[in-house]
């Protein structure tokens, strides 16, 4: 299927690896020009080189990168100094650390909210009016399955990402929808990334079980019988950015291999 977005410009955050890289890769393969952002310059440069070398990338698709902390005003300024207007924005920032809420101070909460709620809002604010003026825009926020089914050791993430979800539910249903701009949230369940390694390690330490025991137990609870891959996550992201997804906005799209047990 031709997704109808070749030649568009996309900003993909947290794209040096994992789910962010999966999204960037899927968009590049559709002929989208991408500007990828992450903090680590060496890993980011390697990711850009991998995207450029991808045999499925059309030669016309440009790949640029900026090493910056997108959760800071300075980092966002560095990105917009390279390019101001984007047709597609994929927001993504590393999740807060796991732990017990009794151990967290106010500063821990502020940091989580700043990275996982306020940063996406700032990126939406900076780009959405230009999208509306051009008559096309796609914003995809990578959040977490925890906004539908909270995870006990991820209280910081549960709270901050739920705040973003509430904000998006309102702003996506304004006149932006009639101006060709959609805003959706993509909720990953358990994908085989560095993030899952962190949470598995925390669960292992809490339970006294081995990492392999935790991994096997988690995968056994997923109807698909496995963790997801960044590549298939990226494909879902690319569809949400497509011309065909123009009638989807304000949605929370859950990609979790069937793990969520609810009807709605």
Quick recap:
The protein is 44% helix and 14% strand.
Topology:
Layout: E1 9-13, H1 18-29, E2 33-38, H2 41-53, E3 63-67, H3 73-82, E4 88-91, H4 106-134, E5 137-142, H5 155-171, E6 181-188, H6 194-207, H7 211-220, H8 230-240, E7 252-255
Parallel strand pairs: 1-2, 1-4, 2-3, 4-5, 5-6, 6-7
Could you characterize the architecture of this molecule?
Belongs to the short-chain dehydrogenases/reductases (SDR) family. This is Short-chain dehydrogenase/reductase SDR. It comes from Polaromonas naphthalenivorans (strain CJ2). InterPro entries: NAD(P)-bd_dom_sf, SDR, SDR_fam. With 264 residues, this protein is α/β, with parallel strands linked by helices. The protein has one domain: Rossmann fold, CATH 3.40.50. 44% of the residues lie in helices and 14% in strands. The chain contains 8 helices and 7 strands. It has helices at residues 18-29, 41-53, 73-82, 106-134, 155-171, 194-207, 211-220, 230-240, and strands spanning 9-13, 33-38, 63-67, 88-91, 137-142, 181-188, 252-255. A 7-stranded parallel β-sheet has the order 3-2-1-4-5-6-7, sandwiched between helices. Helix 1 packs across helix 8 (230-240) and helix 6 crosses helix 7 (211-220). It is globular, with a radius of gyration of 18 Å. The mean pLDDT is 95.
